[in-house]
Amino acid sequence: MSLTRYRAKRDFNITSEPGGKAGRSGAVLHYVIQKHDATRLHYDFRLELDGVFKSWAVPKGPSLDPTVKRLAVHVEDHPLAYGDFEGIIPPHQYGAGKVMVWDRGVWQPLDDPQRGYQKGHLRFKLEGEKLQGEWALVRMHHRPDEPEDADNWLLVKGHDATAAAGKTAEVTAKLTQSVISGRQIDEIDGPPPKRSQLTKTNQPKARVVSPEDDAAPAAKAKPTARKAKRKSTLPELLEPQLATLVNSVPGDTEAWLAEIKFDGYRMLTHIEDGQVQMFSRNGKDWTQRMGNLPAQLAALNLQNGWLDGEVVAVQADGSMSFQALQNAFADPPPKTAARLVYYLFDIPFLNNADLRLQPLVQRKKKLARLLKDLPESSDLRFSDHLQTDLGDAFTHACHHGLEGLMFKRVDSVYQEKRNRDWLKLKCQQRQEFVIGGYTNPAGSRLGFGALLLGTYGDDGKLHYAGRVGTGFDDATLQSLGKTLAEAEQKTSPFVEDVPPRERAHVHWVRPEQVAEIRFAEWTEEKRLRQAAFLGLRKDKPAQQVVPEVAIAADAPVAKPGKTRSRNAEAKAETTAPKPKRSTEDAEVGGVRISHPTRIVFPGTGDTKVDLARYYEQVADWLVPQLKDRPLTLVRCPQGAAHACFFQKHLTDTMPEGVQPVEIKDESGSATYMLANDVRAVIQLVQSGVLELHTWGATQRALEQPDRMIFDLDPAPDVSWQQVVEAAQLLRGLLQEAGLGVFLKTTGGKGLHVEVPLKPGADWDTVKAFSKAVATHLAQQLPDRFIATMSKAKRNGKIFIDYLRNARGATAVAAYSTRARDQAGVATPIAWDELPTLASASFWTIHNVPERLAAMKHNPWADYDKARVKLGPKIVQKFGI
């Protein structure tokens, strides 16, 4: 859709909606969700793509529950200027009613966005003020009773750490304010705010950021009456970033900093107009429990913001005690309660400015500046760090009785989920367990004898993990015993039978209480040995307690889009390939490679510098495939296991070796990229590029393609042998038409069948011809092939994707890597090699250089000689 439909539906002499025209989309793609109280209340979901907002009307709004599929009706494209529109659409105008900007931020495609949009399956990540994590938009099958122009999709939340269930998932009911004005939908009145009045500070920016200056925050002043009315743009809720348990210090020490792992309660602080609220990690308001801390936080030079840290109990001798922290929260508290101290280690928001996408070291610098003038009597502390000798630091931490250390990537962004950018290494084994029962006390003991413990497994059921009978004081025995007696039930909450000797005189309870336990080790039967009770945890729901098994600090990360349990993480410790560590100077082809040992292909452990050296080795083969062809890049700054995005336009952040090329488009012209030598390619590696995709034409004749590509894309249930046979059938058909036919693996699951052309035919002709070929095969062999993108019809079939022959479409270049965990490479092969090949992902950065060095005959040696013009005689054979 163009903006023609958008403009035709509106009279801009009446409505204040922006007229707008198509713009240019850069490396960072924005999204906006507008709450629209028209004939019926709904939410307009808009994703920036190709210079416009692709738009869907979602009647019930987004849900955080992956099992809930929300109808999303595809509507006309909107201009990018619409992202700031908030106000009233006048009566008798299309969409008349109130419009509020409910959420906004950036989105990152997980696949080719143009192709996904055309196919009707968009997978992406949101980094917004209200929504985060993985999502998908999926086109529904057209029903016979629907109008011909009906285009219904489903909006679905992905299974990740940002997902939720039940009432927690109904995010539109919890978060109701505008993110740019703070108003509710019924408070929208009069004209929309002018663009100059809209605050931009809370909008996430590009993932690659420049270091911020060190200017101190403005001095805190008493708000004037006018300022007092202004509403903050802070998110109402914030989830904490969580760490992954490891069993070793990270190897690439320059990429990490270390902090003390505090033995306390994680606490997020929300400050709005000077008012302080302190939330536990599961979102409960604990402000009233925090003693003097809220008053001290209110006195900071911070009018609006979010702080992250840990509250600990400090005893008279200066030591931290988790049990003392428990006692401090007792009702009533003991007369000699320990002192509560709040160690702060992060600042996601500072005076309305969103710092989440800034590097950690920059955020900590701002936090240190905020806390630098605190008096010695203050209970607020800056959690300092070190960046050298991490192994020695851990040894000293354990020697001095600390719980352990936290390791955080110095350039990591703040993400509201658990990931591998933050790691935790403990001096002793301890974790949370769910209490599922208790035994009777013996002798003179009060309350109970022992607790029966468990954790939740991948099946969502509680599994027995053993007993704990030590570590309780009299007060805990009495208070916890009373709580458990009130929670008794007749049946065991554990999925398996508890051994008879361990369930003697047991009372089963509802699995609601969470205990912190220290223990020596796990037995072969997965039971705790030498367990000791440390205290109850009120800051974590029982359902979130799972086996916390440490993995290697440098173990490969799981594939994106797949959820791994901590049990699965444990297997990575013994089965994952050992990551390679480069000790040589991080310079390749005259290009300096920063973070050279960052793992970019998790399945093989190959690093950023390994990738650069691969391209240096194959430069003579790769560069001719790229020369003078406009590029589309797949950038994965943190590696293939992390977020990736497409980039096709040249930006100021691209290296100098990448050359510009101007290409006309609907909005005038746009600047694309060329990489015409190996230095430019290695510079792209330094910029986080893992895939190189090229146009089917060179800059000398951009409107006349010089190749035609058929992408054989098999459904998951199609065997490799079927793919091989499909390629051979297609080859025979094309050769009968007088065309030269060449073959390339994709580094993924399919094959590319390529036809070299002499420039002459335009894009429309080449696309129409390739579509006719695909349709012909699908009609002749309907059990094997399909020429449409409908996933519902693809089971057992191979989709012949001809859409790579459209103007602006791209295909992965020969000898380019793919952003997948096994470091696969798109590789030209001879037709007689195909029957002997094990899969389309057989060739990798490890065996391709060896292949090229040993190869006696280039399978594409005659590629240029085989070029023919796609003239009338050939075209007419397929009825065009």
Automatic annotation (TrEMBL):
Keyword Nucleotide-binding: yes
Domain of life of the native organism: Bacteria
Top enzyme class: ligase
UniProt-listed CDD domains: Adenylation_DNA_ligase_LigD_LigC (cd07906), OBF_DNA_ligase_LigD (cd07971), PaeLigD_Pol_like (cd04862)
One Gene Ontology biological process: DNA recombination
Annotated catalysed reactions: ATP + (deoxyribonucleotide)n-3'-hydroxyl + 5'-phospho-(deoxyribonucleotide)m = (deoxyribonucleotide)n+m + AMP + diphosphate
Cofactors required: Mn(2+)
Comp. bias regions, Basic residues: 223-232
Gene3D superfamilies: 3.30.1490.70, DNA ligase/mRNA capping enzyme, DNA primase, PRIM domain, Nucleic acid-binding proteins
E.C. numbers: 6.5.1.1
Molecular function GO terms recorded: ATP binding; DNA binding; DNA ligase (ATP) activity; DNA-directed DNA polymerase activity; exonuclease activity; metal ion binding
Xref: PROSITE patterns: DNA_LIGASE_A3 (PS50160)
Keywords noted in UniProt: ATP-binding, DNA damage, DNA recombination, DNA repair, DNA-binding, DNA-directed DNA polymerase, Exonuclease, Hydrolase, Ligase, Manganese, Metal-binding, Multifunctional enzyme, Nuclease, Nucleotide-binding, Nucleotidyltransferase, Transferase
Region (Disordered): 182-234, 557-588
InterPro entries: DNA_ligase_ATP-dep_C (IPR012309), DNA_ligase_ATP-dep_cent (IPR012310), LigD_ligase_dom (IPR014146), LigD_PE_domain (IPR014144), LigD_pol_dom (IPR014145), NA-bd_OB-fold (IPR012340), NHEJ_ligase_prk (IPR014143), NHEJ_LigD (IPR052171)
Domain ATP-dependent DNA ligase family profile: 333-461
Name of the molecule in the record: DNA ligase (ATP)
